[in-house]
Amino acid sequence: MHQVLIVGGGIHGTFLSHLLSHHLGITDHVVVDRYAEPLHVWNRHTTACGMSHLRSPSAHNLEVDYRALRKYAARENWPATGAFVPPYARPSLALFNDHCRAIIRERGLERFRRRATVEAIRLHEDRVEAITEAGVLLARTAILALGREHALCVPEWAAGLPEGRITHLFSPYCPQVDSMQPVGSAQSDTTAVAEDLVIVGGGVSGVQRALVESQGRIVTLVTEKPIQVRRFDSDPCYIGPKCYQRFLAEPDYVSRRKMIVEARYPGTIPEDLAAPLQRAIEAGRVNLVIGRVEMAAMENPGGYVELLLSSGSTVSAGRVILATGFGRALPPLVQQLGEAACLPRHVDGFPILDHNLRWHPRLVVTGIPAELELGPSAPNIVGAINAAKRIVPLFTRPSPQAAAWGPLVRVLEPAVT
Ligand SMILES: Cc1cc2nc3c(=O)[nH]c(=O)nc-3n(C[C@H](O)[C@H](O)[C@H](O)COP(=O)(O)OP(=O)(O)OC[C@H]3O[C@@H](n4cnc5c(N)ncnc54)[C@H](O)[C@@H]3O)c2cc1C
Fold it and tell me: Where are any strands of DSSP class E within 195-331?
């Protein structure tokens, strides 16, 4: 029986595994993930949209020391230009990933990983059983760090169109950047080329992919609303105590949900993407179409996909990429556990957790399903750090000497209450 079993070895699960093993000495833990490679989903999603820099600051990284990424960049001689961009020294994806790989390698985190899919979890008084295709794993405590891969938002109009013609940007089947060729059009025919690749969704991932693709072709970007600029994907006030304390002081989960919705800015782009997008539009490389897609149909077998917009106009596409983000569906494991074990849930099905993110004495939850406790930044890297602050006291006793623990203070200092 393991002391801890983490389901999900993405950003959250890997950060917790690092913290447990290296900083708290809990080497008797296992990270179960359906993919062999650590951070597989993070790598796939960020590559798919062609992102160059993170939207979050360098302080949000997989080390407990918030300066670790900057120290790493200096140690490894990353060039000053491009490695970080203002504001808040946002790291390049290449640097962030390199730092993650170094942590995983240097701390030997691969040894804790086991490749399997957890199909069900059974809770007992003295243990947790995780049922996988490869057998049953036992642990004293389980932590769910499941991410959102299961919850791709695919609009109704897209149903029934062939996968070869329409793909969600975050689907494992979405072609990698540069591998797509314009379908059936001559480069000299500007209209036909413009209609070849259509990206639906004007948030950060759609705009990033459109900018990358537009270096070799004309891309149509269909967005429901005019492009909206916001520095972060949620209100940064919730990262600090001011808003976070107000959030936690709110006993009514309906009000907490309202605060989360108001603090999130889905479908927005940061300032530094707005200027290149404007330039690409002016140069005619990105054809920006504002309108809501109502219906889609194949013109003829093997032909173009016709998108009918709310304005009444149509857009023809050789291929459509949906940059429509994620929906609200909870991971199947969370849904199944909530029902089977009658665990406390809000009216929308989201877990109601205690201060240490426990849904049951032997079950801890992080990421989006923990958002009614963690707040708007729950899915982000800082969400993993905030979750760790709540979870660590379950495995250790912070002492008044905590300040002497150096960088560990970042997670061992008392969480906001
Ligand atoms: C394109 C993109 C860019 C982003 N940029 C930023 C950014 O700049 N800054 C920031 O703070 N956040 C960013 N985020 C948000 C967030 O940090 C990422 O989504 C991050 O990957 C979330 O980590 P996670 O561990 O919750 O989920 P994931 O990284 O998705 O990991 C979850 C893991 O759980 C596994 N899993 C799930 N269910 C099971 C099961 N039943 N059995 C076994 N394994 C299972 C999955 O296979 C997966 O490997 C970004 C998100 C996206 C999509």
Answer: 197-200, 219-223, 228-229, 268-269, 286-290, 293-298, 305-309, 314-317, 319-322
Q: How many CB atoms lie within 10 A of CB 96?
A: 25
Contact 150, 287 (CB under 8 A): no
More confident residue, 184 or 322: 322
pLDDT exceeds cutoff 60 at 79: yes
Query: Which tokens in the block code for residue 53?
Result: 């820099």
First to last CA, the chain: 33
Residue identifier of the C-alpha nearest atom 44 of ligand 1: 33
Are residues 174 and 168 in contact, defined by beta-carbon separation less than 8 angstroms?
A: yes
Residue range 373-414, pLDDT digits in tens: 999 999 999 999 999 999 988 887 655 544 444 445 555 555
pLDDT at 191: 38
pTM: 0.91
- Domain of 142 in residue numbering reads as 2-150+327-412
Q: How many domains does the chain have?
A: 2
Distance from Cα 147 to the centre of ligand 1, integer Å? 4
Under 8 Å between Cβ of 138 and 29: no
Same domain, 68 and 102: yes
Ligand 1 pocket (Cβ < 6 Å) reads 7-13, 32-35, 40-42, 45-46, 49, 54-56, 60, 117-118, 145-147, 149, 205, 331, 333, 367, 379-382
Q: The domain spanning residue 144 has which CATH number?
A: 3.50.50.60
Select from 278, 305, 322 the last residue of a domain. 322
Number of the ligand 1 atom closest to the C-alpha atom of 40? 49
Output the furthest CA–CA distance in the chain (Å, rounded): 72
Assess whether pLDDT exceeds 80 at residue 305. yes
Say whether pLDDT at 21 is over 70.
yes
